[in-house]
Design goal:
This protein has five helices and seven strands, in the order E-E-H-E-E-E-H-H-E-E-H-H. Helices cover 23% and strands 25% of the residues.
């Protein structure tokens, strides 16, 4: 595992960005042959949920400066950093007081792993584990609007397996 050195962040243009036109990204992520995004599904006070697209904030610099128009800006980041595979860990989910939690009473077993090549669809599916709909999460709506994937789960082949 590599420590994310500040020297390895580089300011780049975000060609498809609606609100964010450039930002500093971790260069090794941008240069990776394959990117797999593995978020842990949890409640988040500002974004409502942390799922795959929100998890990509981990590859940028100056995250606190990003919080205005957060939903669109997360979608803008996703337009540049496009994982080939998204695997949402929802075995146990934090259902309130996220992202830091504070009590095991806020953790619920969902016993679910979501895997998809479509980051928007993976996030859209995960909202149901929290009793929400895809349209409740601004970055899912913005990502779908930008053509980064679909939030229309009726148009996606969903295969559920029990192990």
């Amino acid at each position: 595992m590599e420590v994310m050195s500040p020297a390895k962040f580089v300011k780049v243009r975000i060609p498809e960005g609606v609100d964010l036109k450039e930002w500093s990204f971790y260069r090794p992520v941008l240069e990776a042959d394959v990117l797999i995004d593995v978020p842990i599904a949890k409640d988040h006070g500002l974004a409502r949920l942390t799922l795959a697209a929100k998890n990509l904030m981990g590859v940028i610099q100056n995250r606190p400066q990003l919080h205005r128009n957060l939903g669109q800006r997360i979608a803008d980041i996703t337009s540049l950093v496009r994982p080939q595979l998204t695997v949402v860990d929802a075995v146990r989910i934090l259902v309130q007081n996220g992202p830091t939690g504070g009590s095991l009473d806020y953790v619920r077993r969902a016993n679910t792993i979501i895997a998809s090549h479509d980051i928007v669809a993976a996030d859209a599916y995960a909202t149901g584990l929290f009793g929400l709909k895809p349209q409740d999460i601004a970055y899912i709506v913005a990502g779908a609007r930008m053509g980064l994937g679909t939030m229309d789960l009726a148009s996606v082949k969903v295969v559920e397996l029990s192990i």
